[in-house]
Design brief:
The chain has about 240 residues and is α/β, with parallel strands linked by helices. It has helices at about 20-25, 30-55, 70-95, 110-125, 140-155, 165-170, 220-230, and strands at about 5, 15, 55-65, 100-105, 130-140, 185, 205-210, 235. About 40% of the residues lie in helices and about 15% in strands. The strands form two sheets. A six-stranded parallel sheet has the order 4-5-3-2-6-7, sandwiched between helices. Strands 1-8 form a two-stranded antiparallel sheet. Bound molecules: farnesyl diphosphate. Farnesyl diphosphate (FPP) binds near residues 62, 67 and 85.
């Protein structure tokens, strides 16, 4: 199969690693928290732009399982930003027909935060425009490990046999079950790595690394990334399509 994305093609699922908040702030002599605050503004811009372009799924890496190792004050600030975002933005997102989903490990999170997640998801469950997926306390290896544990339990209980475990079955046991795989993965901030993000799901994603820091990201940055995506020849392991 070959699919050059083409000039009008819009990726169905865009996943973003929102990197560079801290460096953006440090370069301006500001505390890192100021970068994270501007990062929320960039997030709002991006959700609007993605909705406008007709993207179906936008998955944002807001906090990784490894981010707990940051200084306590920064962790506390990021958690508070997320709470504030849910409190202030969910109603408007709901009005815009956006469905909110949260992926990642909820075990061990504060019950009040889990409740906020559940309420935001329940309120927006029937919405049909953009699916906004927030990856929080997310790590892909941990997600795959949890899925394997569930499957191993099913085998041990005699509910399935090892042969029943196919790639599709594994996919259906991940946090992203039911969502299409990302077509385009964008990372801002100049680094070129995947940082334990959607490792299984990005098997055939196109990667676009942008130099700008996340607080600078806007509709034009998204359009640029999509232009690069459109120029790629997606072969999914096959050969380039022959013209007869
Ligand atoms: C990476 O930049 C960014 C994060 C670890 C957090 C991303 C969070 C936001 C954009 C705002 C909060 C999110 C929500 C959903 C309200 P970095 O701090 O690693 O930057 P650096 O690499 O320059 O240090």
């Amino acid at each position: 199969m070959s699919a050059t994305a083409g000039p009008d093609c819009v990726p169905r699922h865009v996943a973003i690693i929102m990197d560079g908040n801290g460096r953006w702030a440090t370069q301006r002599g500001l505390p890192r928290s100021a970068g994270h605050r501007q990062g929320v503004e960039a997030l709002r811009r991006t959700v609007r732009a993605a909705s406008g372009l007709g993207i179906s799924v936008l998955t944002l890496y807001s906090f990784s399982t490894e981010n707990w190792s940051r200084p306590q004050a920064e962790v506390r600030f990021l958690l508070e930003l997320l709470r504030r975002f849910i409190r202030t933005d969910v109603a408007e997102l709901h009005q815009s027909n956006v469905r909110i989903m949260i992926i990642g490990d909820r075990d061990g999170l504060e019950p009040s935060l889990r409740k906020m997640f559940e309420e935001a998801e329940a309120l927006t469950r029937e919405n049909t425009s953009l699916k906004l997926v927030i990856a929080f306390n997310y790590g892909s290896r941990q997600e795959i490990t949890r899925a394997v544990q569930v499957l191993a339990r099913k085998v041990a209980d005699g509910k399935i046999s090892p042969q029943d475990i196919t790639p599709a079955v594994i996919g259906n046991h991940l946090d992203t079950a039911g969502l299409p795989d990302p077509d385009l993965l964008i990372r801002t901030g100049g680094e070129q790595r995947i940082s334990n993000y959607l490792l299984w799901q990005c098997a055939y994603a196109e990667f676009v690394f942008l130099p700008e820091f996340w607080p600078e990201f806007d509709a034009a940055s998204l359009a640029r990334a999509i232009d690069i995506f459109r120029s790629r020849d997606r072969r999914f392991g096959g050969l380039k399509a022959q013209t007869a």
